[in-house]
Amino acid sequence: MLRTLGSGAGGVRAYGLQDVRRALDVCAQDPVTNVFVAARIQESGLVGTRGPLFGYEAAGEHALCWCAANVVPVAASPRAIGALAGKVVKRRSTASSIFGPVDQALDLWSRLEPHWGEAREVRENQLVLTMQQRPSTLGMPIDHRVRPARADELDLVVPAAAAMFTEEIGYPPYRGSSGAYRRAVAGLIEQGHTLVRVEDGEVVFKADLGSVALGAAQVQGVWVHPDWRGRGLAAPAMAAVVEHTIEHVVPVVTLYVNDFNVPAVATYRRVGFVQTGTFATVLL
């Protein structure tokens, strides 16, 4: 069913520095589901005058929508989605995807599509998987060769990160200069949020803690070198990522994965992840 933008943006405003606490409180209603937006709020401090966070406050409801390269609704009812869409529609030039809880993401997309045009792809069933228990306590083997990447390994990690992005999204993460992309990868390494296994000077496994906030970490960028696939590397390596995260970073580990990626889903379940929600992603 085609859904229209709300009749106005009543109750919607751009959030700023003074709104950080109230925005994080909304995210904290479901830290696992909302870890991406919570992490962006903490990183940015909401400094600036053009978003990228909109808040909706009306009729006793409080919802959010992060609106940068990724557009992500938080705790939004259909009424809130309608109001937020009136602001988000103006940000087409910056958006490359919409994702979040399936009902919210697809409702928002149904209102934006008439204005933004057809999506490249809509992934309507992405499993949100979560763990709070160390895999070692479940009897899962741990690959102790998986460790945080070092700063001097940036030139090894960037090709692995770019390969993973291209496989997952369908186009490379940068065109022309790689400077901005290298800085983003370096930032994760500097925080200790990229874990790798390196063999003979080459990354054979990589995973990032892409978002860390409110006691949860969202794993992204999981990649196994093509030459090492089918050799039993993935599950022990992912177990090592979870073990490290729970011991050194935060007590809850989560990720989301396409339902059609059957090998990945099987690997995560083998490690001990259980489904706690469903996301959808619209690639623009």
From TrEMBL:
Keywords in alphabetical order: Acyltransferase, Transferase
Cross-referenced InterPro entries: Acyl_CoA_acyltransferase, Bact_Acetyltransf, DUF4081, GNAT_dom, UCP21603_acetyltransf
UniProt key word Phosphoprotein: no
One GO molecular-function entry: acyltransferase activity, transferring groups other than amino-acyl groups
Domain named N-acetyltransferase: residues: 144-284
PROSITE patterns listed in its UniProt record: GNAT (PS51186)
Pfam families: Acetyltransf_1, DUF4081
Name this polypeptide is given: GCN5-related N-acetyltransferase
